[in-house]
Amino acid sequence: MDALLPSLLFYAFAGVILGSAAFTAFARDIVHAAFSLLFTFFGLACLYLYLGADFVGLSQVVIYVGGILVLLLFGVMFTGHQTQETEKRTVNFYWGLALIALLGAGMVPALLKAPWAVKSAAELPEAKSTISSIATLLMTDYLLPFEIASLLLLMALIGAVVIARGETKTDEGESPETSA
Amino acid sequence: MQIQVPEISLWQVLPELIVLATAVGVLASDLFVKSVQRVNVTLTATLGLLIAFFTARSLEASATPIFAGMVVRDSLSILLDQIFLAGAMLVTWIGHEYARRNPRQFPEFTALVLFATIGMMVIAMSADLIPLFVGIELLSLPLFVLAGSDKDRLASGEASLKYFLLGAFSTGFLVYGIAFIFGVTRTTNLTVIGQSLAAHAEATPLLVLGFALLLVGLGFKISLAPFHMWAPDVYQGAPTPATAWIATGSKIAGFVALMRVFTLPDVSFAALSDYWTPGIWWLALITMIIGNAGALMQSDLKRMLAYSSIAHGGYLAMAFTSGTRIGAEATLFYMAAYLLMTVGAFGVAIAASRSGQECEKIADLSGLARQRPWLAFAMSIFMLSLAGMPGTAGFVGKLWLFGAAVQAQYYSLALIGVLTTLLSFYYYLRVIVYMYVHEPDDRLLFNRYSFSNGLALTVCAVGLVGLGVFPNLLWSTIRLCTGAV
Amino acid sequence: MNAYFWLIPILPGLAAALNGLAPKATGRMAGHLAVLAMLGSLAISSMALFAALTAGHAFQPIDIDYFTWIGVGGLNIPFGVYVDQLSLVMMMVVSFVGSVIFIYATGYMHGDPGYVRFFTYLPLFTFFMFLLVMGNSLPLLFVGWEGVGLCSYLLIGYFYDRDYAAAAGMKAFIVNRIGDFGFLLGMLLLFWYTGSLKFTGLFEAAPGVFTAGGAVITVITLLLFVGATGKSAQLPLYVWLPDAMAGPTPVSALIHAATMVTAGIYMIARLNPLFSMAPVTLLVVGTIGGLTALFAASIALVQRDSKKILAYSTVSQLGYMFLALGSGAYIAAIFHLMTHAFFKACLFLGAGSVLHAFHRDTDVDVFEAGGLRKYMPYTRATFLIATIAISGIPPLAGFWSKDEILWEAFAAGRVFLWFLGILAAFCTAFYMFRLYNLLFSGEFRGTEDQRHHLHESPAVMWLPLAVLAAFSICIGCVNMPLLGYTGFHDFLHPVFAHGAAHGAEAVEENAFLASSFLSEHMLEWIFAGISVVVAVVAILFARVFYVWFPNMPERMREAFSSIHTILFNKYYVDEMYHAGFIQTYFNGCGAANWFDNRVIIAGLNGLANTVRGLADRLRRIQTGLAPHYALGTLAGMVFLVVVFLLCY
What we know:
Shape of chain A: globular
Number of helices of chain A: 6
Strand content of chain C: under 5%
Shape of chain C: globular
CATH class of the domain at 7-85 in chain A: Mainly Alpha
Helix content of chain A: 55-70%
Largest interface: B-C, 68 and 62 residues
Oligomer: heterotrimer
Strand order of the largest sheet of chain C: 1-2
Largest sheet of chain C: 2 strands, antiparallel
Distance between the termini of chain A: 76 Å
Number of strands of chain C: 2
Number of strands of chain A: 0
Order of helices and strands of chain A: HHHHHH
Largest sheet of chain A: none
CATH superfamily of the domain at 7-85 in chain A: NADH-ubiquinone/plastoquinone oxidoreductase chain 6, subunit NuoJ
């Protein structure tokens, strides 16, 4: 019973994730697909929490559900007034399925047989919030990647502005002969 | 709680910081200066890149990782920094020329090029999969934007979108691969991985899957077939200076990432080369064939160069597959040569515009030799070097690439390489024939090209011939990087 | 002296650079600049030759490394020159014939819109040609090899606005690629086995690495020979040379007769220590050479375009040189190379002079000409001298070199090759005099308008012709074994002694020769006599058919009006000549033509179509739809996983 409940929980979450993801992929209505994505994100957050990764789980909800998904829905609402049926399935669909099947046939056995570097129950740290240890790591070992990631965000911001800005700047009135 | 803060050696990443400061400065100038002169932007960028270049030169190489093992300032990263900085400078110069006709968002253009450069430099010094991944993202994002920065042309937006979608798709594979590797090794640190492999080299199916996924992600960056399909569309659609940087910087950085992950002895998966070589072997084979066959019948100059770039990725991958020191040396040398000839070729494509008409088709170069003999001459050097004509760096580089393949006993690969190279003479020489032999289609004159573009082309052409005649100039430095005295 | 060697290629290179990069500045001086550069090279080459001649046996090959060109680990390729007797002969041929042709070209190309372009490519060509013959390593030779190929390609397509010129350029390019592929493979294999590509290192290492007559050296030399067949237009890769006549005539004379096409012969002679170790290869070389000599000569018999006839003649003469190489008679091959350069250049320039009179760039039907001796006395005289020289009539140059080849082939036991050679010699004399007779003898057959414009070429064109004709007469005197003088042979001997010492018994003794009751010298005389008789008979035939015969029917009808039989006989001979000789030939040439079109060309086209098909299919995969690309990525992923797991 002790072992059964966690397993049951895991499979329940996994089922939700897979089911909603499949619905997202196959749904013909883009709004339905976006809403279905909500369940995928939530399911993932639950899995994270279930694994004891509280910070990641919460971030998942805040960022993906609170940010990205809402943005996505706004985007859909603003651009497509009518719920537009996506195009008829192309040949891609079946090829894709076949390839995925092949890929699965290759990967699943490998995954099952893999000697995962798991820790035994005794090795696991006591259950407590991971926030402080993540913070410590980000400020020590992973300081440089953390900073580079912030640069990445800056970059994304600038990129978004460049792409979104519609107005055209006129030439600075510089004569073509002047050059570096 | 006691927190052990690792040493923060900012001096070691000074070149990156200088480029960052330049990029931010260029961007901010738009805010504070009322009317930014194009020439000032280019001058600032050039100055910053030059300072960074010489700072990088003066850095002392050390094999000990810094920043808690995240990055390493070895001679390889220093050399690559210089290559990237020089490349960024050339791209800025040819971009300056392009901006005269497309003046919009010019400071942003330069800043984006610089940001991408930082990403490349981060990749070059990564000793851990995490900074490697962040570096790749930092490199990709500006390039997505650059590809779509010409908003007058629909093709540019399409290129950007395609590049972004497929880039995101391949990034998924990359992260997935890193996760697998972490799952097996419990670490993302390449130094640690290398050390444990040195003690006990064994691969599990899961690790091998991780390799495959990493290869998909990085193979996309270097457009190895069949992950190359974005390249022709994006190269054609993107503004030409952006294309130049996508074709060179991004591709070289991709190879550097591969090198960091797979071939460096003792600090990568080099010990497991038996497991990862077959994959790259096949990719190299397919890429050489598809790249050259695709280029053969192209009438669009940028598309032809895209396929040519794919083909060159195949040649590089061929030498890379060997996993030997000579292979790594050949790859490094060819990267530098490839940078010069590709940036040069795109630079000519920018310079050879007629009034109100960009150079798009190969036929648009008709009669270039009559009106702009120097331009045609430089383009001939680039084409001959791309084809591997003796006397150019392209020949020396290819000689070593094939030599590395032969040394590793990849005879069939080398044979396909030589055959496709011979094939490639056809489409490279076609460009020369158009320039020298054909009359211009109409009586439109070619534009004057600016000093900055002329300078970039001169540097490229002189560099190619110089390296072709005196390859030892670069070779000795490269040998230092790969540990040979 | 030795310190100035680098100037020899650099001078024309400089002229090319100046003309190419500053065409407006040099303008009409472009030709003079090029000539000046060539004369400079000629002066230095002559001084070097003079120094070598005065040094005599004390002369040592000069090997100067200017700098390390490529230096990686075991691979060390210097950039330098290797000047021995062989290089000196080649340098002299290139610079001397080159200078003369350059001077001629300033007159011939005068007023052409592409004057500067022409004088950019031509000095560039000589630059690479000098590199080819002077380089001290195989890669450097290859640089020159590719460079002259590129220039030839550009110059064949000089009249780019004509479709056939562009097509001919393309054809030359493609066919040469096939040859170069063999060359490159051979070079890589050589490096693989010997670890050196420098000539000196190569020759030192070769005897230790290869077993004489072994499979490895045979394969390597055969691959190198494939390269030579491409560049020197031998069977089955000769097809590009006749088409290459689409270029301006000075180009045909310099590149496609005197210098570039002999690069294959030079290469084999240069690598003689290697080829001497592979008797099988030598047999192949000789056989291909002999067959080409006869094959091309037979085709030349029925051509109508003067430059085409000369082109097939060049192929045939190159075949002679390969025949000599294959018999181990390297010096005879080089000797013929040298004499051929003079008289064939003279013939081409003479043909060019005729074209000039017709105001055409290429292609004059010989049946439209005739009787030109009245209008162009100098051209006619020089053309006649060169024709006699190529036909092998003593004491002109061609006799000495061709006779030596035939004799050496026989003496080496290759009687079959000798037979091919003598047949080809007959054809050569016949078609050359047919050409001469049709051009210069008889009456003019063209239109009145053309006759009106006929004129002798200016002095700047006929003086070079005279110089070349003078050399065609006397250059043979450097080597007259019949008269007991073998100066040329002695001069070159040291180059080939090394290979002979280490080579296998490549060439067996001629049993007939060994058992003969006649002395060898006597036999030599007898064979020379046979050659001369064959040539004279051929010349008489040509005279009969093309000069005397057309007039005979009319005279006979006047004198013996009733004798039908003789008339019939005349026509019978005529018919027989047409039916038996030409028709058979047409059939034979038709077969050759069929082979040319169906096998060689179709093969090339098939290859091109396959590649094109592949490219087209690729283009269809490239749909432009991102989902398809993503699918491609996924397919690649699956492929990789399969490969990885299979290899795991």
